[in-house]
Autoinducer 2 import system permease protein LsrD (Nocardioides caeni), 368 residues
Amino acid sequence: MSTQTDGSAGAPARTYSSYSRNVALRVLMTREMAIVVALVVVYLYALGNIQFFDGPLTLFNLSKEYAPILMMALPMTLIIITGEIDLSVASTLGVSAAVTGVLVIEHDLSVPTAAVLAVVVGAVLGALNGFFVAYVGLPSLAVTIGTLALYRGLAEGLIQDKRIAGFPDTWQDWPTERIGETQYPNIVIPVVVLVVVFAVLLHFTTFGRGVFEIGLSDEAAHFSGVNVARTKLVLFTLSGAVAALAGVYVALKANSVATDTGAGFELKVIAGVLLGGVSIFGGRGALHGVVAGVLLIAVLNSALQLDGQGSEVIQIIIGLLLVGSVIASSNLSRVRALLPRRAVKTAARSTTTPPTPTPGDDTRKVVQ
């Protein structure tokens, strides 16, 4: 066995932490944290300056209105991190709401049974998207634009240009009833459960690491052992199932289902995800940022409405905010690159240079 001295015995040890930035900077200098701060600032400003913006009552109404948006944003986050997109979520919601209405009101099924069947239908519709994207190799943008129209047509076929109404009072009231003495409706419970499940799935499992790897490079993820096609199929199936669950909630909350139920929701979902720090090119994002992004849109929308602003002003402000977040994303990496690192001193590095051997001095020793 042979060993070779390199003259670095006296040099300070260099570890990964020696080159990393300060932990506080790495946590604070992120888009997600910026959105969280913006959410707090906007909420406090509205609470103190807008006359009819009442804290508990506003939270109750926002929870009811934006629960389906937040639900659909959770699987959408994972899909966009992989570099794909699902524009058919609102249409899937519409189909599932129509299925629930038809089964409960026209066929006298119980609401739980109809809800389970509606979620199954949503999962099948999502799996159809996933099959074309993952196994046929079609672009997700093209596929889901097509199924957006297809699924909306299915909803119209089920309802036949009429409004279905008349859900049982017990189930109609449950989603919007308050949890005990709090100011939060019952729908918050399944939403919180879904947030926890998707947060664990994305950030604390090998499946989630595979999602990020796919977003960075499909080919590299494949060679590292990630089943790319199966992962995408699972994600689109989850998206369809969660959209269907949101559709059941929307149908019960409104006590009616129409051909346009959920129309336009997909834009709010995608806006919330991108505003929350998820890269449209894939490979990066965090679920807490998405939750903050959806809530920021909800608070802005409510505050501007209560302040007497028209819908066009609301759309312009939210659009500018979304564009600004994308611009900030490209510049944030440059700002972070200028931050000081805890690098090892140049003088310390110089001590690692092997000494010049003197004549007759053999630095290579052989140990028998």
